Amino acid sequence: MTTVRTPLADMTALVACMVPRLLSGQQPETARAEAATERVVRGQQRASAGDGVSRRT
């Protein structure tokens, strides 16, 4: 089920971002480019969230 839910959730988030742009008259990038951008942004957010975590060496 997870393999189905994750892409479905990603596409839902993508549509949620694209619809307001379309309604405001902006021309969005292709769905593939939008999805790739979202993944990069989420990856950066996850990485920065882990920056404040203390690590034992």
What are the defining features of this structure?
0% strand; mainly alpha; single chain; 57 residues; 2 helices
Tell me what the structure shows:
- The chain is mostly helical and 57 residues long.
- It is built from two helices and no strands.
- The chain has helices at 2-23, 31-49.
- It is globular, with a radius of gyration of 15 Å.
- The protein starts with a helix and ends in an 8-residue tail after the last helix.
Quick recap:
The chain has 57 residues and is an all-alpha fold. Helix content is 72%, strand content 0%.
Binned, the helix content reads over 70%
User: What is the CA-atom radius of gyration, in angstroms?
Assistant: 15 Å
Low-pLDDT windows of residues:
none
Question: How many angstroms does the end-to-end distance come to?
Answer: 37 Å
Oligomer: single chain
Order of helices and strands: HH
Put simply, the count of helices is 2
Into which percentage range does the β-strand content fall? under 5%
Principal-axes geometry comes out as globular
Mean pLDDT across residues: 75
Major β-sheet, in short? none
Which class of secondary structure composition applies to the elements?
Answer: mainly alpha
Number of strands: 0
